[in-house]
Amino acid sequence: MKSFELLVIGGGVNGTGIARDAAMRGLSTMLVEKKDFAAGSSGANSGMIHGGARYLLFDAKVTKLSCLDSGYIQKIAPHLLFRIPFLIPVMPSGRGETFDRAYLYGVECYMEEYDRYQPLKNGKPHTRLSDAELHELEPGIAPGTMGAVTMDEYGIDPFRLCTLNARSAAEHGAEVRNHAQVTSIRHDGASWLVDLDGTEQVRAKTIFNAGGPWAPKIAALAGYEVKIRPGKGVHVTLDRRLSNYGVICKAIDGRDVFVMPHEDSSIIGTTDDDFYGDPDELTVSQDEVEYLMQAAERAFPLVRQARILRAWAGVRPTLWRYGPLEDALSRDHEITHHGNGFYSIVGGKLASFRAMAEEAVDAVSLALGKGAACETHRKALPGGANAAPAAEALSNTYGVPVFSAARVAYRHGAEAAEVLALTNERPELAAVCCPCEGVTFAELEFSRTREFATSLLDLRRRCRLAMGICQGSRCIGPATALVESLDEARALLDERWKGQRPVLAGDGLAQAELLQATYFGTGALQHETETPPWR
Fold first, then answer.
1. Which residue from 113, 170, 192, 395 could staple onto 405, CB 3.0 to 4.6 Å apart?
2. Level-2 CATH architecture, domain 1-80+157-225+332-385
3. Cis, bond preceding 16 (omega within 30 deg of 0)
4. Contact in structure between 137 and 87 (CB atoms under 8 Å)
5. How far apart are CA 332 and CA 359, in angstroms?
């Protein structure tokens, strides 16, 4: 039986961050995740390392921590982050020009306070814009605004962030186990005995429950209680960039909703509703999609000319509090020591994951009386130590299209050449598998052999396979040939269907029909519930 000083349960950004920090400090560490890294809440967020401007009024420490950690994350993974300047237009409210101008003044005052934290994350101070200046920057915004205020934030690929943390943990000695579910936890008086998949048992002196919305279930296995107030957040992805700026819009109930560029697409988000169901069984309703589209349309009148590719949802493991509306709940985090070396972490934000992990491992190190000082803010994640190679140079050296080379450089940073070097011995890997996202077979193979990817769904998260405009119509087949599994193709098609189902209409419906016809018609791929024709 294997023994560890720390077992981390949960492969989201908190779990992978804790595992990396602990391994770097010299603690014998094991990380287990029942699905895949960032398959839960960490992969269903807005994809931003942002400072949390809206928390400034009631949760200033959350804003400060997020901004501070954003600065550190930019240093350890510089290739993964990209700046997103935001515009906050003030639309006429119907309450008179005097009120609207006062409101604009209030927004600017608020942003002046946020400017105090901008240097921590290398953000630029706000600027006040007239209506004419706003429309010079973004002509697509509805005319007749009172003006606008700007702010700076950063986008990131959260799937890559979690994968790189897991890789770094393994490189520092941690045992990393993907697709391994904890089925029982018990304490024998000396240490914890943990069953994995009912077939393997490991021993750990301490356990960190980083299960996010699953944290209450994990704690219950050990006989402890964790209370959270889960909040469901829905996003939709459009088939194009509406703007190179993020834009804050007002929903019908007064909530702030954003339209944000993310790589080649736009993301509209997010809702915030109490969630009482099973986080393994998330669905998105047409009402939730329409709520977001209505808000976006108020700022971008032509938004419905874009096609909705998919809708997706996640559950926030928000701190428990009875009474406030969902939007008013604290985004702070909480670490609890239940006893016998069993810890839980809930709450928090993607933007402050590294600081939260540092606090978590500080507690474990103190309890164990072992562990060096934290270095996660100094040492780069894989691919982040040096600048990424130029796309043109990669293209010329390895014979891949410049677009594909640029996307590999973004996702892998300084390791881009190592990824594409697989083509030296296997030239066929230089071919592009997913034209929408520029994914080469070399990148798929690198993730299969170096990044704990064991399925097409894992590769979707690592490499954005089937995440582009065609939603897998052109790439699922070739990728299936690489992994040699029709079951994997069905699983990926099912995942694409979940996101398409709430948004099917017009061109989107035609796209879904093409996808189904390609694989279940022409390709003769069968649904799992169908009886094969030869029986």
1. 395
2. 3-Layer(bba) Sandwich (3.50)
3. no
4. yes
5. 13
Within 13 Å and on the Cβ side, how many CA atoms surround 94? Answer: 0
C-alpha neighbours within 13 Å on the C-beta side of residue 32: 22
* Single-letter code of the amino acid located at 227: K
Residues 318-345, buried b or exposed e (16+ Cβ, 10 A)?
bbeeeeeebeebbbbbbbbebebbbbbb
Where along the chain do the CATH 3.50.50.60 domains lie?
A: 1-80+157-225+332-385
Kindly provide the b/e burial profile for residues 289-315, where b requires at least 16 CB atoms within 10 angstroms of the residue's own CB: bebbbebbbbbbeebeebbbbbbbbbb
Task: Tell me the C-alpha distance between 240 and 262, whole Å.
Answer: 9
Its pTM stands at 0.96
CATH superfamily for domain 81-156+230-328: D-Amino Acid Oxidase, subunit A, domain 2 (3.30.9.10)
With left for phi above 0 and alpha for psi between -120 and 50, is residue 107 left, alpha or beta?
alpha
Asked if 32 and 177 touch (Cβ cutoff 8 Å), the reply is yes
What the block records as the tokens of 508 is 């989107």
Pick the closest to residue 53 from 179, 180, 170, 150 (CA basis). 150
Q: Where in the chain is the domain with CATH 3.30.9.10?
A: 81-156+230-328
Smallest CA-to-CA distance from 183 within 42, 34, 58, 66 is with 34
DSSP string, 315-375: EE-PBP-SSS-GGGS---EEEEEEETTEEEEEE--GGGHHHHHHHHHHHHHHHHT------
User: Distance (Å, rounded) from C-alpha 283 to C-alpha 313?
Assistant: 7
Query: What Rg, from alpha-carbon coordinates, does the chain have?
Result: 23
Count other C-beta atoms under 10 Å from residue 263's C-beta.
17
Q: State the maximum Cα–Cα separation within the chain, in Å, rounded to a whole number.
A: 76
> For residue 508, which amino acid is it?
G
Interhelix angle 486-500/476-483, rounded to 10 degrees, is 150
